[in-house]
Every structure is written in structure tokens, then in C-alpha cells.
Amino acid sequence: MSEPVTERRRSASLVRLGLTEPWSEQTLARLGWWRDGKPAPGAEPVMWALARAADPNQALRALERLAEAAGKGWSACEAALRADVGLRGRLVSVLGASTALGDHLITHPDRWSRLASDDPEPTGDGPGPAERTEELLRAVGGDPSAPAGAARAELTGQDAVQALRDAYRDALLDIAAADLAAVCEPELPVLSVDVVAGQLADLACAALRAAHAVALAEVLPADLPPGDAPRLAVIGMGKCGGNELNYVSDVDVIFVAEPADPVTTRLASTLTRVAGEACFPVDANLRPEGRQGALVRTLDSHLSYYRRWAKTWEFQALLKARPVAGDPELGAAYAEAITPMVWAAADRDDFVAEVQAMRRRVEEHIAPEHAERELKLGRGGLRDVEFAVQLLQLVHGRADPEIRSPNTLAALAALGAGGYVGRDDAANLAASYRFLRLLEHRVQLARLRRTHLLPAETDTAELRALARAAKLRPDGRRDAVGVLLSEWRANTKRVRRLHEKLFYRPLLEAVSQLPGEALRLSEKSAARRLSALGWASPEGALTHLRALTGGVSRAAAIQRTLLPVLLEQLADTADPDRGLLAYRRVSEALADTPWYLRLLRDEGAVSQRLMFVLGTSALVPDLLVRAPEVLRLLADTSEGAPLATRDPAEVAASLCTTVGRYDDTAAAVAAARSLRRHELLRVAIADLLGLLPEAGVCAALSEVWSAVLRAALDAVVRATPGEPRARLAVIGMGRLGGAELGYGSDADVLYVCEPIGGANEHEAVRWSTGIVERVRGLLGAPSPDPALEIDADLRPEGRNGPLVRTAESYRAYYAKWSEVWEAQALLRARPLAGDAELGERFRRMIDPIRYPEGGLAAAKVIEIRRIKARVEAERLPRGADRATHTKLGHGGLADVEWTVQLLQLQHAADVPELRTTSTLEGLRECAEAGLVGESDAEALAAGWTMATRARNAVTLVRGKPSDQLPRSGRELAAVARALGYPAGGDPGEFIDEYRRITRRARAVVERIFYDS
């Protein structure tokens, strides 16, 4: 620093010291620290301290302001800065890191002397909690020698607030100065984050005690004997209770009083006001009933509430409760009574659901624009550590008092020592937690604002100051900002990884045959942890984990790596027990598939999606073990991914082409089944993941069914010896004809034939019947896949009539014997397979029957209504709930479909647009034609869509067709999740919405169909 002579060299020297402002040289000269382009004699230590400050320019400007404010007293301060390493480190570090504390010093310039060293080798140890209490009590005129909780202040009102504010800010300055001192003077001691957090908590307790003394003076008569004073205990919660407070934070408290009357309520509210105006906001919302509850309660009232009404999260909060101010005996009695309840919380029936909800709330409260900068709530943030530690404490603290500390780092160390967390994992998690807390402290110190956000990456000046305040320096490859961002990302990534591992890795060690750490979870502890995380049968889950991870094979090793993440993903599903069983089945079935575990390990989206569908659906695992190749589709998360965008018509064409290559009939049908299985699984997964709208689901299921029918019919015809004796067409009916199939729907069809090659009608029918029976037998053969059942009961004369008829026979029957319900059934008839020209002629032949000229006679309308009423009365299963039966219930599928079909029978002859087999399309055309109001059409469409979605979801969840919604339990929760309702929400919200939508649809049905 002794060389520069030119103006250019002078400025370059200062820039190297971090003093980049054009006024810095003049300011240094005025302060006497820069002369002739170099540091003045004796000023080098001050210059080096400035160079190391978080923001050298800010520190220099603050020193200049302090000099102006101190006036004649500055000379003593300046001399001490040159000579006293402790003062230099503390003062310059604070001024470079915190504008708010700098303003406090400039407002009270004599306070610099608080930072001077009494000891030539300062240790950094600060005053203890008793000394802090004495200092703040004296500031408000309280007697520190009075019994705890009985001291009264001499100052009241704004005089007390101002005095307490100054004393609190002075003490905060002491702590921050000791915390930051090593930034500018590396030989000074470095305080750990937990020491600083403990000192801040001690200071908060002292402030609450001083505010309590002011409240006593303001509320109680001066001559009231001490024995007659009401008793008020202040219980510290949150970080204050855990002795780990931030620089700027709300202080959470609960008030306990004897008696709980207007006087103690005034005491508590006055304390809250005084502390809030002077020091920090006091938050009493963790009290029973939250902000709606009484501010103060007696001990008995607290206990009564916690026994009867408290939620699990309230016991989690009480884990950190400790008396911090007021009446010490009452506070101790509260702590003694509450403690057993806290450690019994994991036995509560709602523990799992509440724990899951708490876990989700961690990330739900993050504003999207802040997600990447959140130190507290973001993925891998402070809350991840705190929640993980608290949950492990609640689960295992019932049986182990050693892990019951309210302090996060102390509890984490105890969990490691007790074997509930690996020792290395506990040490690494604690290191990352300390780093994140350090950044949080430095961010808050800058302006003494309550924030948990890193500066934006575009704000390099603030990031650089933060990095330097955290003693992060360039490493040769990266500047300080680069080091900060790299360390931040590495630590959040490590926290998230360990957060996942904390819950699940010890479970695997508990069941693995491989040697674990010296201390590890017992199977009993592992079962308790699984129960807390949502498994209804922890013992069964442990059995599955043994099977998956046992042995020394490569697959077992990969499973041990995968399962911590997979188990966490399963814990978020509606039925983790079923999901883990399904995962075991799939893993065992695919044990010889070389890419299966590699795909799960390397593609995060695959495991996340797979665990969700396995924990939700019973249908998917059965299909997956027979169509594992679909798993590969889960890896593609792009917008046009084939999982959700395959064209049903292309799928159908590809199926028919593939099956057409087989000469053997059985092999052809087996190929058709295999391709259908693949497509059914693809659609089911896309549906569960919310990637496929309901119309797309129905269209895909209908097209693949039609394609299987076409392919099987063609294969049987090809394999039948001799010349064909008839043309044969298959006509789709019902939901198949309307392209509205669900996962559990039968295929309703009619078979129509026509003689060829000189055959007579009898020969044509006999030949066609043989073909049809062969197709039905092949498709209906037993199979682990969902059934391929063909239903021809809608044919003339029903089950008693011939299976196949000629087109002329159909014509004669419909002309002479047809009833109105048959005309209604024909509304959804469309050719699907076989001879296309014959199918088209059949369609034209039935048009006059299903679209009658002149509409429908009144008597036939009445007949349709009568049939519908009989169906509602007779076909609803015994015990079914009409409000939640998707097919025959009020506002369900039958209601909407019969209403649309009645309108088609009445008006399709005159309105050709109504001639569609689709329910929703027919409904839209009815609205376009003015036959139904827009709002009525919307209500009917909403009811039909909701019932269709719910019916499909029930089939996916149960693995078999069902029209009745579950009434409660995990099945209902799984159906709600399958329909896109949020995890951890109340599935009753889905039932309420279903009933609301179908009730509106039923009201329209009553008005339009029943003309009521």
C-alpha cells in the first residue's frame, strides 16, 4: 500500500480495497487515513479492516457520518480504531453489513464505546440471560433484585417504550458486533450460528421480562401488595422457545394466567404492545383457538383444550414451549402438564393425516416468484430441517426422553447419538442448517427486516455484500457471488436429499441383512416411523422392504438407493400400503428386465409418476407387470409426449395392421389383447396424471375396443375354411356406439349379415353365427387383463332372439314389432367392424326408426318416462346411495343420456344436427337448436362429465368396475386424488362437489325429461 503516486494509481489502489465510489479518497483524507495516495501512518489496520468489510463503501460512509455525529468525541473513537483490534473488527464489520445498526450508532454516537475491548484477547462470549435481563430492567427502571416476574418498572407509556427500544437495540448491536467481528479482523473469534441464535433468544426473553415489568406498572395499582397481584406466565414458542432466534423475527408466545380475568388480559395485551413497539412483534396466535381464542387462559383451561380439541400441529408447536417471562412457578406448572401430551401426540388417530398436511404446507406457502430464493420455506430450506427433526422427535420421543430438546441442532445431535439418524447425516444436516441460518442472519441484519429471501441473482452488489458478510471469498475460479450461489445450491440440495433420507434410510437399515451403522433403528422404531408417515400396516411394509433390499445383488443395492425417495413419494399417495405392495409386485415381475431399475434411478419423473399411480390405482399394477414397456413413456414430460398425445385412430389402425400379420387365430387375438393392454395402461396412467381430458379417455378406450373387435373378426374370417357364406357387420351400441366407453364398460353390439355366393338366408345366418361365436369365445377367454365382454342383449327379442339376423330380418322386425325403447337404443348405433358397406346400409335402414318423422307421439313419451322411472326403482342395487351412484343416481349418466335421447327421438327428424351417437355432442346441438337453454345444457354436460370421470376413477382405484362412489376411507381419498383433488385435502370436498353438480343436472332432468 506504500507505492501509488499518480491520480490513476491512487484510484486503482482504492478500488482494489473495495472502495469504488469517487468520493472515497476525499472521505478517507478528511478522516486522516489517506495521505499522498497511500494510507496515512498508523491507519493501515483501519484500511485493511475497511477492505474486508461486507460493503467497504457503506462502511466508510457510515464512519464519516459517525465522525460528524460524534463531534469532539470522534478523536477518542478514531484513536481506539487504530489501536484496538476488537473495536476495529466489531465497529467496521457492523457498519459494512447493517445500515440499520449503523443508523442506531450514528443516532447515539457515544455507543461506539460498547464495542471496545476490555480484554486484550477477546473471546466473543457475551452476557448471559441474567445479565441481559438486568440491563433491560434497569433501562425501564425495574429492580433486577426483585423476585422473578415481580419487578415493576418506574417508566411507563412512551418513555418506557423509548428506553426499552434503545436498550434492546444496544444489546442487539453488541450481539451483531461480536457475530460479525471476524469479517474484518480474522484473528477475532468466530461465533457459531447456534451461539448467536441462543444470545438473540436470551435477549428476547429479557425484553419480554422488561415489557412485563412495564405492564405491571401500567396496569396494577402501585400500592397493591405483591401477594395480591394476579399471576401471568409468558410461554415462549417457536424459535424463542427453542433458544434459536433470528435477528428479526416475530416472537411467538402463549399467556397463562391465574385468574384469567380482564386484569390479566390487560397485562398480556400491554406486554404485547410494549414489546411490539420497542423490540419485536409479539405473536400470540399459537394459543388455543388461534386469534379467535382468548388471549389469556388459566392452566386448567389450556389443559382442557389440549385434551379435547387440539390438532396435531399444535402439539408439534408445543414441542418448543418453555417459560420465558412472568410468574416462573405458573410457567413451570404449564410446562410440566403439557409435556406428556406433546409426547403422546403420535398416538392420535389423525396424526398421519395432520403430519402429511403439515409437510405439504411447508412448500405451499411459497410465492412462485420467490421459490428459487427462499431460505426458509423452499425445497432444501430451513423448514425442511426443522420439520424433519420435529417429526422424528414426535415419533421416537415417546420412548426416548434423550431426544426431546426444543432446540433444532441439539435435537438433531441427540437423534444422531441415538441412532435415529446416521451420525454422518446428522453432522452434514447440521452443517447445512448452520450455513442457511448464517445467510438468513446476514440478510436480516442488512436492514433489520424480517426476510428469508436471498437477493435476486441480478442484484450482484447485494449478493457480493452478503457473500463477504458470510466470510465467503473468491476461490480462484469464481468470484464471491459465484461461491455464494454455488454453496447455497449445494447446501439446499444436500438438505433436501438428507430430508428424504432421514425418514426412510434408517427404515432400510432396520430391515436389511447388511451391517449398518453402530446404532440403527430397531424394527419397532421403524414400524413407528412408518405408521407416522401413513402406513396402516407398518409390519407388512417392513416385510416388503426386506424382500426388496435383502441380499447382495446389484438389484438390491439399487433398491436401497432408490427406496428412500420412493417411500417419500408413496407417503404422499392416498394408499401407501397398496402402493408399496404394488411396487414390490412390479419389481419382482420385472426382475429380469435390465432397464427397469436403471430407468427409475436415472429418470426422476418416472419414479415420481409411478409411485403416484401405484399408490392410487389397483388397476395399473395388474397391467404394468404385463406391459412394462409403457414405463418408458413416463420419462418424457414434454408437451407433446406420446403418453398423452397418441391419436386413437392411429392406435386402432396400427393394432389392426399388426394383428393382420398373424395366420394363427389364437396368436392374432393374443396380439390384439397385448396391444390393447398396452393402450389401456397408457390411457389409465395419463388419466391419473391429469394429462388426458375425459373426452380423450373415452375416445381412446372406445377406439381400441373397436379395433380389437375388428381385428379379431377379420382373423376368424381369414381362418375359417371355405368360401364366406355371408357379409357380416358389427354395429356398436350403447357407450361403445357413442364412443363413450369407460374402463369397466361392456361392449354392446348387434350383428347383421347378408347372404353371398348363392347362400340362402338360413345358411348366411348359420355361417355368421359360427363366426360370431368363435370371436366371442376368443375375446371372452379367461385372462388377467380387464375382461373383453361382448353384450348382444340389445338385439331384437333380447336374449331369446337369434344372435345374428339379416338386414331384411331386422327391417321386418322393426317395422312390425319394434318398441319405443328399441328405437331409443338405436340412437347410438354405428358400424364398427366387418363389412363397411353392409354396416352403412343398416345405418340408413334404421334412421327412420330412431329419427321418426313427426317426432314422438305423446303416448310414447309417457312410455319412455315410465320405463325410466322403473329402471330407477328396480335396477339401483340394494344399499346403493342414489345421490352418489354414477350410473343410476340423480343427475348421473342415465339421467343425462335419457334426456338427450328423448330430445333426439322428438326432434332429430327435423333437426339433422341431432343425429349423433355422442351424448355431449347431442346436448350441444340441442342447445344450438334452442331445445335446451344454455345454462341447462351446461348443467347436464357438467353432470354427465362428472359422473363419467368419477365412474372411471372408481374403476381405476378399485381395479374392477363399480358405479357407486366410496363413502369414506382411503378408497374415497384415492378417488379424489385420481380426479385431481389436492393431496392431504378433505375428500369430502369431492363428494360435496359431485352432489352439487349432479343435483343441478337432476333439476334440469326433472324439468325437461319429466316435464315437471
TrEMBL record:
It is an enzyme of class 2 (transferase). Residues 357-503, 866-1008 form the PII-uridylyltransferase/Glutamine-synthetase adenylyltransferase domain. Its cofactor is Mg(2+). Its EC number is 2.7.7.89, 2.7.7.42. Residues 515-1012 are annotated as: Adenylyl transferase. The keyword Nucleotidyltransferase applies. Pfam families: GlnD_UR_UTase (PF08335), GlnE (PF03710). Gene3D superfamilies: Beta Polymerase, domain 2, Nucleotidyltransferases domain 2. It catalyses: [glutamine synthetase]-L-tyrosine + ATP = [glutamine synthetase]-O(4)-(5'-adenylyl)-L-tyrosine + diphosphate; [glutamine synthetase]-O(4)-(5'-adenylyl)-L-tyrosine + phosphate = [glutamine synthetase]-L-tyrosine + ADP. Transmembrane segments: none annotated. Residues 112-131 are annotated as: Disordered. InterPro entries: GlnE (IPR023057), GlnE_rpt_dom (IPR005190), NT_sf (IPR043519), PII_UdlTrfase/GS_AdlTrfase (IPR013546). One of its GO terms (molecular function) is nucleotidyltransferase activity. Keywords: ATP-binding, Magnesium, Multifunctional enzyme, Nucleotide-binding, Nucleotidyltransferase, Transferase. Involved in the regulation of glutamine synthetase GlnA, a key enzyme in the process to assimilate ammonia. When cellular nitrogen levels are high, the C-terminal adenylyl transferase (AT) inactivates GlnA by covalent transfer of an adenylyl group from ATP to specific tyrosine residue of GlnA, thus reducing its activity. Conversely, when nitrogen levels are low, the N-terminal adenylyl removase (AR) activates GlnA by removing the adenylyl group by phosphorolysis, increasing its activity. This is Bifunctional glutamine synthetase adenylyltransferase/adenylyl-removing enzyme. It comes from Pseudonocardia eucalypti.
